[in-house]
Write a structure and sequence with these properties.
This protein is an alpha+beta fold. The protein has two domains: 162 residues, no CATH class; 101 residues, Orthogonal Bundle (Arc Repressor Mutant, subunit A), CATH 1.10.10.60. Helices cover 52% and strands 10% of the residues. The longest helix is centred in the middle third of the chain and has 22 residues.
């Protein structure tokens, strides 16, 4: 079987993270070396990093600074110009609606580990970001916060400072640095949102009414042509089963369905099944595995009764939950809970 190529992301965004660390008085060279990243390479325009290097960089940054709010500083450090050709195309768009559609279409060039979706009517607009590869909880939280901050400040830049009020929904729990979200002026923040990892921005505005000062039809056409060529070469990589497992594990109440996850990847359910089959797994097996992990964690926590846990996990009743749990664990939920209690 052919090996899956490593996931690679543009290094330029993490170069901004290095600058934030430098301003915080951190020895950036040591951080990069610990993450197996060349200090010379990270600053090159076309450099890329493997996802395991990104994971190591974020872990090192948190460990050395002790700051959980670094992502907000990294997000604010990003500008539309940080996105190279795509940022140029956005600035050259006729209006903000066109710029956002352009960003969603070519978001793989910015961050191949996430998908951006943009929907709009005359009354409202929605921007949605969801991860499309597996990553650690720390890495996921860092990216969700960085993307939220970057999108806020870049949209404000696009609108020449006239940022409309909006609702910002993040799937992560309320962080200890929640007070810093007041810096995103106009954002009404909601944490613990939705059943799958991601973030959502909801505006009561029509972005087609926001004409852009630097609109240039020739420039935006050129940018689109070149972005089309680049995106055909961009490969997100990674195992689909790892991503599905992460989306199931990181979801809130209940579990996302196979239809919902296939839609996130812009695939049919049959195609998602085929990808999982190539990796020797089935969606139902992954869902049952993650549901069982959650069941054990909730039983060990001891805060909910068995019936409450059954409902939390999406079972019709406690009897169905008990049967499924016994099949995997070899004992009932109540027996498992008793075994976990200290003597």
């Amino acid at each position: 079987m052919q090996a899956t190529p490593p996931i690679e992301v543009p290094a330029r965004y993490y170069a901004r993270a290095a600058e934030v660390l430098l301003r915080a008085g951190i020895d950036v060279a040591q951080v990069l070396t610990a993450a197996r990243i060349s200090p010379e390479r990270i600053g090159q325009p076309d450099a890329s990093l493997r996802l395991d290097q990104v994971e190591a960089l974020i872990a090192e940054a948190f460990a050395r600074t002790g700051r959980a709010d670094l992502a907000l500083d990294v997000g604010r450090a990003l500008k539309l110009s940080s996105h190279s050709l795509l940022g140029f195309g956005m600035l050259s768009s006729p209006d903000a609606d066109y710029a956002l559609r352009l960003a969603a279409r070519y978001f793989k060039l910015i961050m191949p580990t996430f998908r951006m979706r943009y929907r709009a009517t005359r009354e409202r607009a929605e921007i949605l970001f969801t991860p499309v590869v597996s990553m650690s909880p720390l890495c996921l939280q860092f990216h969700l916060e960085a993307v939220a901050a970057a999108t806020h400040w870049e949209l404000r830049e696009l609108l020449a400072g006239h940022m409309p009020e909006y609702d910002l929904y993040l799937s992560i729990a309320e962080p200890p640095h929640v007070a810093r979200y007041a810096e995103l002026a106009g954002a009404r923040c909601h944490f613990g949102w939705e059943s799958v990892p991601g973030l959502r921005m909801l505006f009561a505005t029509d972005f087609r009414a926001h004409a852009l000062a630097l609109s240039d039809p020739t420039a935006v056409k050129m940018a689109e042509t070149r972005c089309n060529a680049l995106v055909r070469k961009a490969v997100a990589g990674g195992k689909v089963s790892d991503w599905v497992r992460m989306m199931l594990r990181e979801s809130g109440e209940g579990l996302p369905s196979q239809v919902e996850l296939a839609r996130t990847l812009n695939l049919s359910v049959r195609t998602l099944d085929r990808y999982l089959g190539r990796e020797g797994v089935r969606f139902r097996e992954l869902a049952n595995e993650v549901r069982h992990e959650r069941a054990r964690a909730l039983l060990e926590a001891g805060e909910l009764g068995v019936t409450q846990i059954a409902h939390e996990l999406g079972y019709a009743d406690a009897a169905n939950f008990a049967r499924a749990f016994r099949k995997r664990a070899g004992l009932s939920p109540s027996e498992y809970r008793r075994q976990q209690r200290p003597p």
